[in-house]
Amino acid sequence: MHRFVCSLLLALSAASLTTRAAEPVTMMTNAWPPYVDQQLPDQGLAVELVTHIFARAGYPVENTVESWPRAMEGVRIGLYDVLGAAWYSDERASEFVYSEPYLVNELIVVKRRDLPGKFSSVGALQGARLGLAPDYAYGVDFTALPGTTLVYENHIIQSLLNLLNDKVDFVVGDRRVIALQLEEYLKDRRHEVEVTGITLPPRSLHVAGSREGKRTAELVKAFNAALEDVRRDGSYQQIIDKWRKRYAL
Description:
By secondary structure, the chain is of the alpha/beta class. The protein is 39% helix and 22% strand. It has helices spanning 2-22, 45-56, 68-76, 90-93, 156-164, 175-185, 216-233, 235-246, and strands spanning 25-30, 61-66, 82-87, 96-98, 103-105, 107-112, 129-132, 149-152, 170-174, 193-195, 203-210. Helix 2 links the parallel strand 1 (25-30) and strand 2 (61-66).
């Protein structure tokens, strides 16, 4: 009898693991190369990392790429399980549960090389024309800078073109994103752009699920545990190093 009970428990445990593995994480991301891009290897750095981490926890991932507003709405109302690449903000935290950060985004300010002056603080942007993306949690209130004109574009490449065409004075963006855009689309003019000395708060990248989501607590807990595991065994760093070699600025 004891042997039968043990066998039954083992069978139920195996069935539970099989069921969990058969239920993929439905993830939404927005196109954001090199972090998310269906044309890049493994769909981009963020997707590769998140897929690797969830796989370690026993979950396959099905990723859908949409615009950022649609991605947030899809997860918010429960059509999808998680956002795959989200910056934290207090406002969003009222609706979403965030994982531990799995990547750090270094925000930089770039300018045309021929723009004179030394720029080493956010205050130096006063009175300038500043290229930004809408709905980004930069961690800095650029609207508080006196006399600054904020020029929003949906795609960073448009902001960089505005910079080169003297329609804005500075562009704020992620270092890897700007490096990729310059390398892929503006290689012949890359030398005209330089990074200023302005330091911005780094932004942490997270997986996030709706506070109303039925699987959110389970998935975030599993992701956090697996994240520690892949960092310990070195597989996390291998992915980071691979992408660092591809895009640097």
